[in-house]
Amino acid sequence: MRLVSFLASLVVLVSFPLVWLRPPSGDVTFLGILGRVLLPQEGFEGAFWWLNPSSTGSIFTFVVFFAGIFMILLGVLFGILGGRLGPGLGIFGMLIFTLVVWHFYGNDLPNIIGEGYLLALGGFLAGVMFGGGRYL
């Protein structure tokens, strides 16, 4: 087991109940996003409740967003199991997550990022830099 990947993934796991985004519609946690994406009660549009209602969202955006969330979860799982690939996969998932949020919020993105998002990003970055880096 690689200790740094394990510890970095635990940091990311701790960030899940913290606020990831602060859009005008209210604070959003990763667990809240995950619950709305996996168990949409209001249909397809209900999964995007936290996104900017004035911008456009399509099924392609939803699929890409779901792929990013899935990669974040796989990154945490692989990291907890001790794999060096976990933080790298998590960074890629965070990139996709960020691009989708940026698509909806544009230049307002830095203003809505919460501490959970920054903690998760820092955990994955630490896992990549100190957990093997070039040997991923």
What does this structure look like?
The protein is mainly α and 136 residues long. The protein has one domain. It is built from six helices and two strands. Strands 1-2 form a two-stranded antiparallel sheet. The chain crosses the membrane at residues 59-81, 88-105, 117-135.
* Low-confidence spans: none
Number of domains: 1
The main sheet comes to:
2 strands, antiparallel
The number of helical elements comes to: 6
**Percent of sequence in beta strands:** under 5%
Strand order of the largest sheet: 1-2
What coarse outline follows from CA principal-axis ratios? globular
Rg, Cα atoms, Å: 15 Å
Average pLDDT works out at: 81
Helix content range: 55-70%
User: What structural category characterises the helix and strand content?
Assistant: mainly alpha
- Separation, N- and C-terminal Cα atoms: 14 Å
What are the SSEs and their pairings?
Elements: H1 3-15, E1 19-21, E2 28-29, H2 30-38, H3 59-80, H4 85-105, H5 109-112, H6 115-130
Antiparallel strand pairs: 1-2
Helix pairs in contact: 1-3, 1-6, 3-4, 4-6
